[in-house]
Each structure stands twice: as structure tokens, then as C-alpha cells.
Specification:
alpha+beta, Cytidine Deaminase, domain 2, binds zinc ion, globular, five-stranded mixed beta sheet, 10 strands
Length: about 300
């Protein structure tokens, strides 16, 4: 059995011989270790339009998923071209949490330092539908709806309005059974809505929260201590924590640190499947963001 240090050295050995990706010129190499000590590797792969890049962690996950036995994951190792520690980004955290337990270990390493965290720490409040198969999604959502929890006073009317608008705007045909909308409540009581666009290729779908980024930024620009409330909801009235792209947005845009922006969502305690209504500030959904801005490359 190899030690963490030995596996990190293997990751560097591979990474250092591989070509640099076309758009970022920045290599990331990931190794997934299963509980039976198999090592599965992945390298980032990019096209010139960098938004469709596949990260090393997700490349490795795809290889793991196609393996016949799909042995549970134990540890994820990530090394990069940077001399600083780089944690997995939002999309990879989201997918790693779907593939493993919240206790899955994530080790980020440079040639000198190693940092160990769990995916549960890096991606708190994962999807309320985590690991529910597509065929079971609707009945699971309806179960949550039946056990509807009372919304705290100041959220209750906001919730009712967003839910009604969502039902009024529900497309007749859905490409995915869960359809999302987002409502943003401004200090003057005005609610602005946006709706998910479900693209044929799922990765091209438009996140409803990101769909409001222009108006949110337009309002918050140059201001401080403004209070906004956000609900991201599906057609069953189930409220969702932000998805990966919205988390990256909240974590990297500094306007959210100067203002009070909160989200209320149904949170599933995976250990006993209980549902709790949880309220959180938007900048807390992506702890320890990748330190790419100060990294020495
Ligand atoms: Zn990534």
C-alpha cells in the first residue's frame, strides 16, 4: 500500500511529462484512490473556449464510473503547475460529493506541502437530491413537499410568491424532470424572477441564479450592507442550495462580502435522510476557494 506522499509523487511524475492544456497553459493532475487502493488518474482537457474545460478530477471520475466494480473512493489527490496549494473548484467538488461520501478525503499538494480536507468541508450543503436516480426524483420531491416545513416568518410570503410564479411559468415539456427558478427579494420588497434554461446538452443549461447576475450586480454595485434574499426552487416547491456555478460566482465576486445576501433551502441530512430548512450567507457555500489569484505559477 502506497503512502499519501508516494501517491503525490506519482501524480507529479505524470503531470510533469504531460502537455500543457491549450487555453489555460496550466496542468492539473488528479488521482482517485479507491478503498481497495486502486489508483485512477485524470488530466485537465480544454478547448479554446475555456468554459467547456474538463478538470482533472472530473476526468478521473469518469474513468472510475465506467469501471465495472466501481469500488468506493477513499482519497482524491490533486497536484498542479502552481507552487501554491490549489483546492478543487466548485464543479469538481459538486461531482466528487455525488461520487463519494462527505468524508471522502481530498489531498491537495505542492512539491513541499500537503493539505488534507474532506469533500464535506469543501462542499457543504450538497444537493437535497444527491444520489437520487432520475426515475425516483419526482416521487422523492413529492415526499419532501408532503412534509413541508413551516417557512420562517419573513420568508413565508416570499416563498409563496416565487412558488406561484414558478408554477405559472412551468414549460410544458422538460428535458430534465427537475425545473428550477430563482427569486431575488430586494430591500424595497420587489421580487425579480429568473428561470432555468434546460439545454439539450445539460452542461449548456443556464443556472437561474446566474441568470440574475446582471441585475444583482447592478443593484449592489457601489453599495454596502444591502440585504437580499434568494430562493432557488423547483416545481415541487423544494428549495435548493446554490449549484456549483452559482457558488463559484458568490465566492469570487467581492460584492457579496460587502452585503448581506442569504439563501434559504431544504437541506438533507444524508445520515438519516431528514430534511431541515437551512439559511446561509451566499459566500459560505464554497469554503477555501482555489487560491488561484495569488498563486505563483
Ligand atoms: Zn474542477
Amino acid at each position: 500500500m502506497k503512502t499519501d506522499q508516494e501517491i503525490v509523487e506519482i501524480a507529479f511524475k505524470y503531470k510533469d511529462t504531460l502537455p500543457k492544456p491549450i487555453a489555460s497553459d496550466f496542468r492539473v493532475f488528479a488521482i482517485l484512490k479507491t478503498v481497495s487502493n486502486d489508483l485512477i488518474m485524470g488530466l485537465n482537457f480544454e478547448a479554446t473556449p475555456i468554459g467547456s474545460a474538463i478538470c482533472a478530477e472530473r476526468a478521473a471520475l469518469s474513468t472510475w464510473y465506467r469501471s465495472a466494480d466501481r469500488v468506493p473512493l477513499d482519497t482524491v489527490y490533486v497536484v498542479t503547475d502552481s507552487q501554491d496549494l490549489i483546492t478543487p473548484g466548485s464543479l469538481c467538488r459538486e461531482m466528487l460529493l455525488e461520487a463519494g461520501l462527505p468524508s471522502l478525503t481530498v489531498i491537495c499538494a505542492t512539491k513541499n506541502i500537503m493539505k488534507k480536507q474532506t469533500i464535506g468541508e469543501l462542499y457543504p450543503y450538497g444537493s437535497v437530491y444527491r444520489n437520487i436516480e432520475r426515475s425516483q426524483l419526482v416521487s422523492f420531491a413529492q415526499q419532501i413537499q408532503k412534509k413541508a416545513l413551516p417557512f420562517p416568518g419573513e420568508w413565508n410570503l416570499f416563498y409563496q410568491i416565487v412558488y406561484q410564479k414558478l408554477k405559472d411559468n412551468l414549460p410544458k415539456m422538460l428535458l430534465h424532470p427537475i425545473y428550477l427558478a430563482a427569486g431575488v427579494l430586494y430591500p424595497d420588497g420587489h421580487i425579480r424572477m429568473s428561470y432555468q434554461f434546460q439545454a439539450l446538452e445539460y452542461g449548456c443549461s443556464v443556472d437561474p441564479i446566474i441568470g440574475q447576475s446582471g441585475s444583482i450586480e447592478g443593484f449592489l454595485a457601489g453599495r454596502k450592507n444591502q440585504h437580499l434574499k434568494i430562493l432557488q426552487m423547483d416545481q415541487f416547491g423544494v428549495c435548493h442550495s446554490p449549484y456549483a456555478k452559482a457558488r463559484a460566482y458568490f465566492s469570487e465576486k467581492t460584492i457579496f462580502q460587502d452585503n448581506v445576501v442569504e439563501i434559504l433551502f431544504h437541506h438533507r441530512n444524508y445520515s438519516n435522510n431528514s430534511i431541515e430548512l437551512t439559511q446561509e450567507y451566499v459566500q459560505n457555500f464554497l469554503p477555501a476557494p482555489p487560491n488561484i489569484f495569488n498563486a505563483s505559477l
